[in-house]
Amino acid sequence: MARTLIRDLSSHLDETVTVYGWINTLRLQRRMQFVLVRDHTGLVQVTHPRGGEEDWIEAAFEEVTLESAVKITGKVVANPVVKLGGLEVLPESVEIVAQAETGLPIDEHTGLDQRLDWRFLDLRRPSQHLVFDVQTTIEQAMRQIADDEGFTELHTPKLMGTASESGAEVFKVGYFDRTAYLAQSPQFYKQMAIAGGIDRVFEIGPVFRAEPSFTSRHATEFTGVDVEIAWIDSVEDVMAFEEHMLQRVLADVCAEHGEQIAELFGVDVTVPTLPFPRVTMAEALTKLRATGWDPAGEAVDLDPEGERTLSALIAEEYCHEFVFITDFPAEVRPFYHHRRADSADTTASFDLLWKGVEITTGAQREHRHDVLSAQALEKGMELAPLAQYLDCFRYGTPPHGGFGLGLSRVIMLLLGLPSIREATFLFRGPNRLEP
Ligand code: AMO
User: Is the Cα torsion angle 94, 99, 104, 107 positive or negative in sign?
Assistant: First the structure.
């Protein structure tokens, strides 16, 4: 018999259906057997009175274990006493498709590390499933808006012959008789695409960072969203696209999953207003110092505490969860960031904070070959390993800019998860390469 999803049972009242799912709860009482079956769309109560002759169903429910995979055929009937949607299934046949071993390795009290060891079982919880439904909606919304705005989606290589951006934080891998590196960013390739006449570049893909960080927001492999836009007038064009994209993403998430997110995570999704607040780094430092942060007055960049405090100040002042920090000093930004025309020490760059955490770095790029080379030398870099990158600016590359957004961080913040580990299908960190 064809499968009926549990969420659709209410439209099959008084019909015989088959549900496929897992045994969630067994309440085997003296006269009645109550079995809760779960599929990815919900839970249903299967109710069976004991005492029939040659009762195969009673025997099956005595034998079956929690989390076994089952197919149950039965009649859907209304019963106002049943909390799960006021209906139950009266079984006519029960097939134990795959019996689970007894003694499940995790339950609702298990700590995160052990849950991650048994991630496939952990994922059977409805809240964990929702994480990836939300991720699907986010990616769809991003692709939709990128398409609407004339972007081309690319898949840049993750194996590289030289380290991208800088030599630090890069994983080396054996590559036949030489060494390859795992891409820490599509940065150089997305700019190469701009040089190749692809006007607007969009990519969602894996990013690798050999950072020995154990914080709640760092992973050694994560999904990055990268954007690069040609012919910009200024970095403002890049920020305008990003805020527009995030507003659309959150509107779609709110419409499709808002209720379930409130129910399972206790979070109300807010669709942000435009424009997002913007503060320069100098203004941010002044605001923060007024709160007692950085008493020595020496900081030129924000630490995580500074980011949290700034977001709190902005939330108070503008009633907004997001803030762009702009105009970072050149000393804390990469050599390829464009400098402000009126201040060579300041870059046309930004970070985007959401609820106190950095989710994006972006900038206008330096597209003039001579200036770019000079900026690399100024940072103490050698030009030879950069030769292929620098070549991209020798034959007419337009002004451009872009950003990198950490998708896993966005999901963590959106759902109020305590760590990026739960926002990732299979987390990768310094101590975790399995499962
Ligand atoms: P950046 O290094 O800031 O910029 O990375 C962009 C965004 O990626 C996320 N992110 C991380 N997420 C999880 N674990 C990590 N270890 C991690 N590191 C970074 C953050 C961050 O804001 N090439 C530039 C982007 C650009 O200018 O276009 C870059 O990679 O959300």
Answer: negative
